[in-house]
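Figure 6 in text form: structure in, sequence out.
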């Protein structure tokens, strides 16, 4: 009989690049996809924040996205990923309920769903989160642009987004009543 390796008391949630590649090849991973927005006093979306990222040798617009770490609450993953991409001064207003407006299934094979990620099979819980503070692109984000809901939902912006995120963006805006 083989013994199981002991886990550390408080797992860090981080894997080495080699371990992450192996896990991605064997299991779907849980992510959060977050559409950062600015709202007015009536709770209406006035602006949508889109990142400019370099990924897989191309540059595209993107929403905030990141893994949910082992032993991490969804709320904490939302805040951590927003702060990772928009900075510590973003001041996200985490939703009262951790219920997503959509669930996006990303597959490494194109055509299975509208969502594609060549690295892995991932399940992403999608949220619209108002941010009130100063936002600056961080880490691998090259730029952050604030667009009106109409601009964000345009075919031009959809053409600048990869992996089907434009579908999720339009779903987010429809969910908020920001599309006419």
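Output sequence:
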């Amino acid at each position: 009989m083989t013994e199981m390796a002991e886990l550390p008391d408080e797992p860090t949630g981080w894997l080495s690049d080699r371990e992450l590649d192996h896990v991605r090849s064997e299991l779907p991973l849980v992510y959060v996809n977050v559409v950062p927005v600015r709202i007015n006093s009536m709770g209406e979306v006035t602006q949508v924040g889109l990142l400019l990222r370099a990924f897989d040798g191309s540059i595209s617009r993107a929403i905030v996205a990141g893994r949910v770490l082992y032993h991490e609450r969804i709320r904490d993953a939302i805040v951590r990923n927003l702060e990772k991409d928009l900075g510590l001064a973003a001041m996200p207003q985490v939703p009262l309920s951790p219920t997503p407006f959509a669930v996006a299934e990303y597959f490494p094979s194109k055509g299975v769903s509208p969502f594609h990620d060549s690295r892995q099979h991932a399940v992403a819980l999608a949220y619209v989160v108002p941010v009130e503070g100063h936002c600056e692109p961080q880490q691998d984000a090259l730029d952050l642009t604030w667009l009106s809901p109409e601009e964000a939902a345009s075919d031009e912006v959809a053409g600048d987004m990869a992996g089907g995120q434009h579908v999720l963006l339009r779903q987010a805006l429809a969910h908020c009543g920001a599309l006419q």
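Caption detail: The helical segments are 17-26, 74-86, 149-152, 155-159, 165-175.
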